[in-house]
Design goal:
Layout (H helix, E strand, L loop, with lengths): L8 E7 L3 H12 L4 E4 L15 E2 L11 H17 L4 E9 L7 H14 L9 E4 L15 E10 L1 H14 L3 E3 L2 E9 L2 E8 L5 E11 L5 H6 L10 E12 L7 E5 L5 E7 L3 E5 L3 E2 L11 H12 L11 E12 L13 E8 L2 E9 L5 H12 L26 H11 L5 H11 L3 H5 L11 E3 L2 E2 H10 L5 H8 L8 H13 L3
Parallel strand pairs: 1-2, 1-10, 2-7, 4-12, 10-18
Antiparallel strand pairs: 3-6, 4-6, 5-6, 8-9, 9-10, 11-14, 11-15, 11-16, 12-13, 13-14, 17-18, 19-20
Helix pairs in contact: 1-4, 1-7, 8-9
Amino acid sequence: MKSNLNTDIADVLIIGGGVNGTGIARDAAGRGASVVLVEQGDLASATSSASTKLFHGGLRYLEQYDFLLVRKALKEREILLRNMPHISRPMRFVLPHVKGMRPAWMLRIGLFIYDHLGGRSMLPGTHVLDLRTDIAGGPLKAGFRRAFEYSDGWVDDARLVVLNACDAADRGAQVLTRTKLVAARREGGHWVADLQDTRTGAVVQKRAWALVNAGGPWVNKVIDALDGVVPPDPVRLVRGSHIVVRKLFDHDRAYFFQLPDGRIIFAIPYQGEFTLIGTTDVDHTSDPATAECSAEEAAYLCSAASDYFSQAVAVSDIVWTYSGVRPLDDTLEGNASTASRDYHIKVSDQNGQAPLISIYGGKITTFRKLSEQAVAELGEYIELTGQPWTDHTPLPGGDFPMDGRAALADKLAAGYPFLGLEVCRRMVSAYGTLAWKMLGDAKTTDDLGQDFGGGLFGCEVRWLVAREFALTAEDILWRRSKLGLVVSPAQAAVLDGWLKEVGA
């Protein structure tokens, strides 16, 4: 086991600033490891901000007999909801029964297993709904009579990544965004990595006893940059696309829709005024950075939603789309929707030194468990001073009860009445108890700095730059928030200009 007496050599260098990379960085830093994390773009700029934004066990995975994955995800679901009540919340899902698809007895059995497989303790169990009388039936076509209602969770995926990175940095990790791995090699029992600043082109070297490859869909590209490492196993890249439309219903529950081709989609309340619909599962053969919702995928999602909602959803109704690419095990046959979502951690070393830990696959719901397991692997090579801790420690700003978000927003509004309740609710949903620190001693809107629209003011922008690694308007409007849905292009341009002026 290597004790890092040479302060010029970090314990671990992590490649990739998505949910897995930042989760590993947070866990390792919290156990006393010296950590450097590099991300070629912004944090959560790829797959980790392009999920369906759910903490869920994966009800459909029961059909694939993937009970171990479902159980693992269900156990994690409640841990995560408890530790980040600002950026996540429990959500009820409505699954209409459709004749000719999965029979009612199958759905009952599946949901019974789902309720009990993961040791559910906080969330309510499954209920049967009469869609002719329940409010959930209102937006649906008249032919739907019965539905099953069950529990899962919603999460702001991009903020999950950012807050993991913030916590890692608070615990001593060095987080470098816009920094790309050019090459790395084993030398003297450790790794020597060439890292390039993608803005300036400057190249610096970092040394580390261990290297973690959390490159997501670029996991094999990272390995290609490592001198002397054997060619990687093949990876299947699968694109998931989503569409966002103006809200199709007024209640706070989501829908789980079965489709004639055997697939499923979700329709989820989103950012107050919108409905999120997704996802697709399509093989992706080009650079993951180019992923976007195709015309065929958009039409498919609109048609699928229109089969259920009385208000037809047209392509012209779409206000935003996004896509992400997931790296899955390429050894399995079948269509993209049935490929396993479980993760794999592969470790290789050089005579017991300079380990390479590569992360393949994974669901956002299991990122914490994956991180904990990866750090346990690191512990075979570097000295860790602490025990596993992330299962009982909230993310920054999440130190309040799971059901306390509304009360916290009311308290914030009482202290800053000039903001208005809606802005306070957004701030609590983003920053939790840190909202007070971010707002400081402001007494009027004039004290908040420049108004960029959508309730975004200069003091929040400065906070995001100083504390959350934001550099551009896109970083702020589409990842640290979703204010891009309400801020005009002109306002976004003003924000970008302001950021350049202050040297972000």
